[in-house]
């Protein structure tokens, strides 16, 4: 959880984003294989950090969330890892604390939906 590890993860993520946008298409298969291995290694390291930071019940809850909303689970995992790296989390995150964290995230990201009904004008309608 040191800064060089974080910087390496950031650089890998930037390479992934550039590859997705088509900027990295001129790589040979050896480089692509190396990138895939680096990506898998980063994901393994991420899962190792999460297993150290979360209790078994909290990990199970995050796994259930990932089945329904993978992007939300990934966001919660990112928040937990960031908090641990900055020293805000010193002990394992319990399921209760995870629930309160999820509630905080939900209140911050809640989108208000607005439904507008427009009635079609007919030729026979009087104004």
UniProtKB/TrEMBL annotation:
Residues 34-43 have a biased composition (Basic and acidic residues). Pfam families: dsDNA_bind. It comes from the Eukaryota. InterPro entries: PDCD5-like, PDCD5-like_sf. Residues 1-43 are annotated as: Disordered. PANTHER family: PROGRAMMED CELL DEATH PROTEIN 5. Belongs to the PDCD5 family. This is DNA-binding protein DDB_G0278111-like. It comes from Penstemon smallii.
């Amino acid at each position: 959880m040191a800064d060089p590890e974080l910087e390496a993860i950031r650089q890998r993520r930037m390479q992934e984003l550039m590859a997705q946008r088509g900027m990295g298409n001129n790589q040979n298969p050896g480089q692509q294989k190396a990138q895939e291995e680096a990506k898998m290694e980063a994901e393994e390291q991420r899962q190792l950090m999460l297993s150290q930071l979360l209790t078994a019940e909290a990990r199970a809850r995050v796994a259930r969330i990932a089945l329904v909303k993978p992007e939300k689970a990934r966001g919660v995992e990112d928040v937990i890892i960031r908090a641990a790296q900055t020293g805000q989390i010193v002990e394992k995150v319990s399921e209760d604390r995870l629930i309160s964290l999820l509630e905080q995230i939900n209140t911050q990201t809640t989108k208000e939906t607005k439904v507008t009904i427009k009635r079609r004008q007919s030729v026979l309608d009087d104004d």
